[in-house]
Amino acid sequence: MRHRLRNCLAALMLLGAGTACSPPPDEAIKPDTPAFSATDTTGHSVTLSSLRGSVVLLNVWATWCTPCRQEIPFLSRLQAEEGARGLRVIGVSIDEAADRAEVLVAAPRLGIRYEIWFDPAERVASVMDISAVPVSALIDRSGIVTWRHAGVLRKDTPGFAQALDAALAPVPATRN
Question: pLDDT per residue over 32-75, tens digit each?
């Protein structure tokens, strides 16, 4: 897949599109949290299912992807502004395992101020039906993928603000 993703990026850059290395936006809703595990920056195994109770914006990216780098400032601001409301932005790097140190060095330089998970085997691609990067998925507190976008995520991306507000809305108290 990595070669296919790089070829897609190269073709878009040659055509002058440069805004995404992906098919048109896909806001398909999946029924439940995809079963996915990766490694965090400390080398520990992490899973999406362990994040139930939090609102997660999962962003699949790579250091070699220019459109991915374009959305990092927005994602960092989003984490800073909405983290107190329960949002966890997680960037899943699909860079090769040999490039892990490069990702860790590049993260502060790129302005990444959110969690990074590593998936050099690109397992997330099959779990989330990803054929190109960047791709973002919004997962609500109960683990439901409520919104998805292929391409650069921006503040004005259609449907995103509404989906985020809905996901971050306070959970009504249950009566016993």
Answer: 666 889 999 999 999 998 999 999 999 999 999 999 999 999 99
The angle that helices 2-15 and 66-82 make with each other, rounded to 10 degrees, is 100
pTM over 0.85: no
Beta strand 45-47 with 37-40 is antiparallel
The CATH number of residue 136's host domain is 3.40.30.10
Domain count, the chain: 1
* Domain membership flag for residue 153: yes
Strand partners, 150: 135
Task: Kindly give the pairing relationship between strand 45-47 and strand 145-150.
Answer: unpaired
**Domain enclosing residue 80, as ranges:** 2-168
The answer to whether position 20 is within a domain reads: yes
Task: Give first-to-last CA distance, the chain, whole Å.
Answer: 49
